[in-house]
Every structure is written in structure tokens, then in C-alpha cells.
Design brief:
Blueprint lengths: L7 H11 L10 H10 L12 H14 L1
Length: about 60
């Protein structure tokens, strides 16, 4: 399964697995974007990212932990 920018929850879960000790509230959006792009299962156009998308991923991450 591959992730697209619209898959906020799936991206957040993958980030939790990859960075279990990271506090998502302390992560800058620039770093969050790079981390998402580095996920093995992420397959979407890097230029389609927006602050709103990153906020959604961050909120899902917060909700899950």
C-alpha cells in the first residue's frame, strides 16, 4: 500500500512506527514534510503538500498517541 497526501491517518501511523519517541507538537512542518517524503510507502508529488495537509497529519499523530 502506498500513501498519498490525503492519507493523513495512515501517514501518521507510519510516522509513529518510525519515530516512536517523537513528540509531534514539537516538530516543525519543514521537518514533518521531509519525514513524510522519506517514508518508504509514500508515493505522491512533493509539490502537492500544503500547510493544511501537514496540520492534518500532525493532528492525527497527536490523536493516536
Amino acid at each position: 500500500m502506498t500513501f498519498k497526501w490525503i492519507d493523513s491517518l495512515e501517514i501518521a501511523l507510519a510516522l509513529i512506527d518510525k519515530y516512536p519517541k517523537q513528540d509531534p507538537t514539537q516538530l516543525h512542518f519543514t521537518a514533518l514534510r521531509e519525514w513524510i517524503l522519506s517514508l518508504d510507502d509514500f508515493d505522491d508529488d512533493p509539490n502537492h503538500c500544503s500547510e493544511r495537509i501537514l496540520e492534518a497529519v500532525q493532528q492525527c499523530w497527536i490523536d493516536e498517541i
